[in-house]
From TrEMBL:
GO biological process, one term: SOS response
UniProt-recorded name of the protein: UvrABC system protein C
Keyword check for DNA damage: yes
Source organism per UniProt: Streptomyces caeruleatus
Domain GIY-YIG positions: 16-95
Amino acid sequence: MADPSSYRPKPGQIPDSPGVYRFRDEHRRVIYVGKAKSLRQRLANYFQDLAGLHPRTRSMVTTAASVEWTVVSTEVEALQLEYSWIKEYDPRFNVKYRDDKSYPYLAVTMNEEFPRVQVMRGHKKKGVRYFGPYAHAWAIRDTVDLLLRVFPVRTCSAGVFKNASRTGRPCLLGYIGKCSAPCVGRVSDEEHRELAEEFCDFMTGRTGTYLRRLEKQMMEAADEMEYERAARLRDDIEALKKAMEKNAVVLADATDADLIAVAEDELEAAVQIFHVRGGRVRGQRGWVTDKVEEITTGALVEHALQQLYGEETGDAVPKEVLVPALPDPLDPVQQWLTGRRGSNVSLRIPQRGDKRALMETVERNAQQALVLHKTKRASDLTTRSRALEEIADALDLDSAPLRIECYDISHLQGDDVVASMVVFEDGLQRKSEYRRFQIKGFEGQDDVRSMHEVITRRFKRYLAEKERTGEWADGDDTIADTSTEPLTTTSPDALAGGLKDDEGRPKRFAYPPQLVVVDGGQPQVAAAQRALDELGIDDIAVCGLAKRLEEVWLPGDDDPVVLPRTSEGLYLLQRVRDEAHRFAITYQRTKRAKRFRSSPLDDVPGLGETRKQALIKHFGSVKKLRSATIDQICEVPGIGRKTAETIAAALAQAAPAAPAVNTATGEIMEDEESGTTAETSGEPVSAGAPDERRGQER
């Protein structure tokens, strides 16, 4: 625990102006991001007597080792920069939303020649009309299935559409009347686009006029004794009414609004959002957050607004946002929302009437979501805490290992030797921290030497980052990191660009674990400990988990630590080990599949993919190319005589017994003698039984 007074800046050094501040720990990792109207006044609150601070705030300032700030011009800029940095750094002491999955939307691709109706998730695209979000994708498909009877808009993928155009035959939906089949010219592109526009109009709530028009057409058809047409129109009307029933009218004045409700206790808060468009509830979503900082309801609302509209613009931000409490201060948030929409946005608390009644419904949903979350999470939190405590007791650690790294070596009979590193923090996977290695120090199979090499390489990087010696780059397990000068300007564009520097941005291998787990027994554990000793690292614990009896081995001990089979600590170690094994096997298979898909032409210097494809297209196969003369090779467009001579020499040196490769598809051709085929999926290739194949693959 750090003493906040050791890094407290002098009051005169802190500007009395709007800005964003960052607290960092001893490893320069950003652990908290905040904004302030006055940086001087806000930061002074953190450096008061520890006894007067909220427990979570006290934990944050004692974990931090430094604080820095960036001055901006307005509070709106501070809000924007705070949101960007929280997304960039993922600070552990900021509010974090869980269960924020990518909610599905009903999308109409009006930016295409023939608009398509489909389910979409993720970032919104320009020129696409979105409706939702919906809680489930099946709810979208049910609605679309009803509406396609009346608005037979294209729903097929680009490949299906292209194939139907080529063959002149529509898909099944075209035959049953749920697609107007523009692929085969049943309707023109203008007629199809008009159908898509009518579909969008109906989804936006303009339903009354369209229904009245259909009813009038039905009556006219009946008067003219066109009973089949009248029956079809009657069924269309029923389908539309059934689709409308799925979204009940909640506000009679056709209001466009988002309603946000919060249910909270001392530790957590649940946020629920209802999206109302045209007076109807068009979508619902929700989050749960740990209250890792001392925070008010208004501040929770502000964070929810950032999460909800941080990447949205235009009509996605409604004219009215109803909340249970207003952020303080209100003006910067309201200005920010107005900027996102491009017109005025009303942010207020509903006091009476239908909107107040609907807000109470949203609040009940939030309360139920919090209760349900606590019911599911209680055992999970307890179990993970108990598992970490059991590991600390069994290994005689000073504290629970909040960060665990596990390493595994993988190969297939000594070929393609690779290693994996997986990370668990607080008992949960931290996939963004996973790393993979190629073994480079020697050839062949030696798990002990491989483990020593991997641990050495990983912790050399940690020491390099700790000493901040500069740039590095080394093979598959590293990426060159370029640095820029620290952010000094206050313009919004410069602030956004400054996020790309290495100040506070998590670098690979920058943070040490409290526990290193290796997949193996005494030899692997000894190799890992020897690597740490050679680097002078003595504050990281090491253990190994042997598969045979699930024994835990410690360096220098002749006997293993045997945890009970029902131990939560053993279960967590098994999960960590199995995840490392899965990650290593996946990488090893990828490398092997890539090697199998190689071609002798890959070794020809200066021969790019375009000319390789031209050669295969001209000759049909590598075998025929190998038997061609230099003059025949020169006939291929783009191949000169010197290149042809190089190709012929390279093919002559290639082993004729190598498996035949279809370079156009990347597949290994079948070997008639062995009867085995290499699969492009990267699965093990062997003529043996499945159990034997698994036994050969480490």
